Amino acid sequence: MASFEKLRNFQSRLKRDGVEAALVTSSTNLFYLTDFFAGAVLLVTPARSWYFTDFRTIEAARRHFADSGVCLEMAQDGFIPYIREVVLRQGISRVAMENHTLTVADADRWKAQLPVPVTWLDGCIETLRQVKFPQEVACTVRAQRIVERSLRELLPLIKPGVSEQDLVAELVYRFYKNGAEGLAFPVIILSGENTSLPHGFPGGRKIQNGDFITMDIGVKVGGYCSDMTRTFALGRVGDEMKRAYNTVLQAQTAGIAAIAPGKSGHEVDAAGRDVIDGSEFAGAFGHGLGHSVGLVCHDGLRAAQGSRDVFQQGNIVTVEPGIYLEGRFGVRIEDMVWLSPEGTKNLTEFPKELTVL
Description:
35% of the residues lie in helices and 20% in strands. It folds into 2 domains: 5-129, Creatine Amidinohydrolase, Chain A, domain 1 (3-Layer(aba) Sandwich); 134-346, Creatine Amidinohydrolase, CATH 3.90.230. β16 and β17 (329-332) form a beta hairpin. The strands form 6 sheets. It has a 6-stranded mixed sheet. Strands 7-10-11 form a 3-stranded antiparallel sheet. Strands 8-9-12 form a 3-stranded antiparallel sheet, covered by helices on one side. The protein has helices at residues 5-17, 27-34, 55-64, 80-89, 104-113, 124-129, 134-154, 164-177, 239-258, 265-277; strands at 22-24, 41-44, 49-53, 71-74, 95-97, 118-120, 182-183, 188-191, 212-217, 219-221, 224-225, 228-233, 290-291, 302-303, 316-319, 322-325, 329-332, 335-340, 343-346. α7 (134-154) packs across α8 and α9 (239-258) packs antiparallel against α10 (265-277). The protein is elongated and about 75 Å long. The two termini are 45 Å apart. By secondary structure, it is of the alpha+beta class.
């Protein structure tokens, strides 16, 4: 049974900030607050909540919200008439909405049809999402263990002549067989010269001896994402490739050591970037060092050049430096770290020393 602790936490924040009522329409934020996925709208005040859904999910909603104190409303032919009625009945004079997720058209529609003025939440829920509850961390860890188990099962299949797409199909099958509820993002498996593309698309290229093979992979469990990247070599590895790999590994080690509550995204990024820029591969690391992970894979916070985001206890953040030599090869290594009450904990257990398959 859902605890609704996150919903109560949001209500406390509304009370603290003097927000009379909030209308939540983002599917991600709805799931965060209720642990329930449906086409719905949630109206929240510091004291009460109303969940508006339709016939397709009302029975499941009754089961999920039983004894929760959340008022269920089955809305037919659109939510707005039902929301208007509750707003007027409760004497609500102003409603705050999610300006970080609403389209301009939707914002205009809500403002035109609600019977009271609309203000903005200004990322309030997105900020709350960054500090993970224990059950959220547990889902992330379970997702990561599925990824690691599936990757171990895939490695024996990596041989010359197998295509990138073949490996994607095999890995996705294993993800679901091992308990994944969905993909955190489309699987990236690239080989040879394609590994210089940080977010390239797997294709029909046949893997060859002497290739680097980069895999950026993640799944969802309980709605929460995992994210990991590993780079392998097939058959043999050249000296320059070894140096690039070891430089990335050193940069990642420095980045993990740097991340801590109170550190800015720019500071953490610099710790890893300085290692690469102080090597023969200076200038070959062109993206940020990492990002927060949660209900979506890139969940708002960034460890990147110029980032003013400040990390705090409870964040889960990737550390993923890379070196990319255009048209030749690339290397990336990515772990997830949790800023736990006991200190920084690496949630990724898969080995990252250079492995030649």
